[in-house]
Design goal:
The chain has 20 helices and 25 strands. It is of the alpha/beta class. The chain folds into 3 domains: about 240 residues, TIM Barrel (Alpha-Beta Barrel), CATH 3.20.20.300; about 210 residues, 3-Layer(aba) Sandwich (Rossmann fold); about 120 residues, Immunoglobulins (Immunoglobulin-like, Sandwich).
Length: about 700
């Protein structure tokens, strides 16, 4: 038996043997994402590019979970881990079946280029809904759970995760191919790098993807600083460029003059795999002395090692028998529904919700996202076997005793629904039905055609980014006129970012995100009180774009809940339930690092809620100006009941970052806050309760 096929040797030894058996001409094509077969060695073709952000994407049927920002709003790393395992299982089932049919095309492999752990620092960024929000701690905790569960803990990985986009990348999308991100050492160490470090050190993430941009002058796919960080952290996987990012070296960034120079620069820096076609020039680069055969060989070794860790060179692994019928099975769909229910955030409720069936004869469901499958999806999505729109979910739950009216009301982003009609052609129908109904559910928002990735959206004027925090004008007119009816109205906002819907007159407001295939069922369960809402905002909702720093400014000053208290519509960590939850006590044990929190349900409805811990260094000049999240746990509390929750606080919570980007221990006195929201005035105003504060000395 050839050494590379012998499971008695380590993956490293086997990968080295396989690489060394290839000719140089066979090695080079292995460094491009569509790696060809090497038939004489029994190496099948393999396409590295696959996506699994919130379900296996772009390859047909799969369970579609809420978009990543919605998954973050659950504040539940364990449930997210369950999601990741399902994604990996379905990816493996698809790979098993497709490869047997000889289909080794794009989106069919086991290297999933997820999660996106960039920090959502600016609400204009179109791709922000792919992330876990604005907080490095939350992003790290969720990202680590996602990666660990996606990859598994056995001899072979179930699937391989990839942390992207390394690093300090969050728009503007229109400039990403030439943009030079300027970030201070402190902001890098405090905000932009912690999640990547956690995924490398704690989760042993198999892949890291560079961004399109430069960071402080160097392309991120060839950055000595970033590659040095990976080495410092002990990264032991493969590095891949973003797609066609290496072409930007010579075409946009102008740090090289030719594709040959670009290929050599990236590979020499440590970029093993090219998503794109620039690495076809490596043969010429070697001839010109720009890159060595040894460097190329070592990159091949790392890529083959990943494939071997996936068990792709074994006669049989435990994963080879995963059948295709697990894909989109009922069990997986139930988890998607659970996630949708736990992700939706109740932002406002004057008592209208939950709806009482016995007092309703009719409901008007109005708005462009009412019956939209796109409003469920977000981007990077798979095809659901049976998606439930908001309208369908409400209609099913309402049953035969409640008449459900429906009007589109307005276009998603234009001033009319029908091209030949006059402007506002849907308003009259919306008002007619609204006047007839006992209650109105107004479903507005965006979808991934309006906020998303450059090239994927119809938002051509800003390449997927937003110009402001407002809904398109046609929807604003619809909201204003429907609310003017004075009927009991709940506004449901399907969007992946901070929006000010200008809906002060609404009786209730729900942030539904892009809630996945069963978003309509989840919304109906919440509206009618079968489930109490319990999601929390993983990002700040601002009042206006005018008071937010320039989009291209990567300084964290005056951004996110850690650095500003101005211009806040709804704060990070905020979200109501149908009950009244209060934290009544908090005790911190310095020896174990565990905070024990008592939580009481003072209402008459069973609910889940999220206990949140925030810490503030009271002495260091380098500390964040405001308390920052350092622990959280989702908990179920029965009506009138009280539970005790233990949350571990890591030692890093007591560290600060100095201006040189060094993580240090500076100061030994801390405020520790425990509540179901942030310890800020806006949260207190909105919830009517405040956090418990205790003093900690370290």
């Amino acid at each position: 038996m050839e050494k590379y096929l012998d499971p008695d040797f380590s993956f490293q030894e086997r990968a080295e043997d396989l690489a060394d058996k290839m000719t140089f001409e066979e090695q080079v094509p292995q460094l491009s994402y569509g790696a060809p077969a090497v038939e004489r060695l029994g190496v099948p073709a393999y396409n590295w590019w696959n996506e699994g952000l919130h379900g296996v994407a772009r390859s047909g049927t799969a369970t579609m979970f809420p978009q990543a920002i919605g998954l973050a709003a659950m504040f539940d790393d364990k449930l997210l881990g369950k999601v990741a395992k399902i994604i990996a299982t379905e990816a493996r089932a698809k790979y098993n079946a497709s490869s047997k049919k000889g289909d080794r095309d794009i989106y069919k492999g086991l290297t999933l280029w997820s999660p996106n752990i960039n920090i959502f620092r600016d609400p204009r960024w179109g791709r922000g809904h792919e992330t876990y929000g604005e907080d490095p701690f939350l992003t790290s905790k969720l990202g680590v759970s996602f990666v660990k569960n996606l990859q598994g803990d056995g001899k072979y990985m179930l699937a391989a995760a990839c942390a992207k986009h390394f690093a300090a990348h969050s728009g503007p999308e229109a400039l990403r191919h030439e943009f030079n991100t300027i970030a201070s050492k402190k902001d890098l160490a405090e905000t932009y790098l912690p999640a990547f470090e956690a995924l490398v050190k704690e989760a042993k993430v198999e892949g890291v993807m560079g961004a399109y941009t430069r960071l402080n002058g160097d392309p991120t796919c060839a950055s000595p600083f970033l590659m040095g960080k990976l080495k410092e952290w002990g990264f032991d996987g493969y590095f891949v460029s973003d797609c066609w990012a290496i072409r930007d070296f010579h075409e946009s960034h102008r740090v090289t003059k030719t594709p040959t120079e670009s290929a050599a620069k990236a590979l020499n820096a440590g970029c093993d795999l090219n998503c794109g076609n620039t690495y076809v020039h490596l043969l010429a680069a070697e001839k010109e002395g720009l890159v060595s055969k040894e460097t190329i060989r070592n990159a091949v070794v790392r890529l083959m090692r990943t494939r071997m860790r996936l068990g792709l060179f074994e006669e049989h692994t435990e994963f080879d028998d995963i059948p295709y019928d697990v894909v989109a099975c009922d069990e997986h769909r139930k988890v998607s529904l659970e996630c949708a229910e736990k992700s939706m955030v109740l932002l406002k409720n004057n008592g209208m919700l939950p709806l009482k069936k016995e007092s309703l004869k009719s409901i008007a469901v109005i708005g462009p996202n009412s019956d939209s499958i796109d409003a469920l999806r977000g981007n990077y999505y798979g095809t659901s076997v049976a998606p439930k729109t908001f309208l369908e979910g409400i209609r099913e739950e309402a049953g035969s005793d409640i008449r459900v009216y429906y009007a589109e009301g307005s276009s998603l982003d234009k001033d009319r629904i029908q091209p030949l009609a006059l402007a506002e052609d849907g308003i009259a129908e919306a008002l007619i039905l609204g006047e007839m109904a006992d209650a109105i559910v107004l479903c507005v928002g965006l979808d991934a055609t309006l906020e998303g990735e450059q090239g994927d959206t119809g938002n051509a004027f800003d390449s997927g980014d937003k110009r402001d925090l407002l809904l398109p004008e046609g929807q604003r007119v619809l909201i204003e006129k429907v609310l003017a009816l004075g009927k009991p109205t709940v506004v449901v906002l399907a969007a992946g970012s901070s929006i000010n819907p200008l809906a002060d007159k609404a009786d209730a407001l729900i942030q539904a995100w892009y809630p996945g295939e069963l978003g309509g069922t989840a919304l109906a369960n919440i509206l009618f009180g079968k489930v109490s809402p319990s999601g929390k905002l993983p990002l700040t909702f601002y009042e206006s774009i005018d008071k937010i720093p320039d989009f291209a400014d990567y300084s964290m000053k005056d951004r996110t809940y850690r650095y500003t208290r101005e211009n806040i519509l709804y704060p990070f960590g905020y979200g109501l339930t149908y009950s009244k939850i209060e934290v009544t006590d908090c005790v911190y044990d310095a020896s174990s690092g565990i905070a024990t929190v008592s939580v009481e349900n003072k209402g008459d409805i069973d609910t889940e809620d999220v206990v949140q811990l925030y810490i503030r260094n009271t002495t260091s000049a380098f500390a964040n100006p405001y308390p920052r999240l350092c622990g959280f746990k989702r908990v179920a509390i029965p009506a009138g009941g009280e539970v005790s929750v233990q949350i571990e606080i890591g030692e890093s919570a007591f560290d600060v970052v100095n201006d040189d980007g060094e993580v240090i221990r500076d100061g030994n006195t801390f405020d520790l806050f425990a509540g179901v929201s942030q310890p800020d005035e806006k949260s207190e105003e909105l919830t009517g309760s405040s956090c418990i504060r205790i003093y900690v000395v370290k």
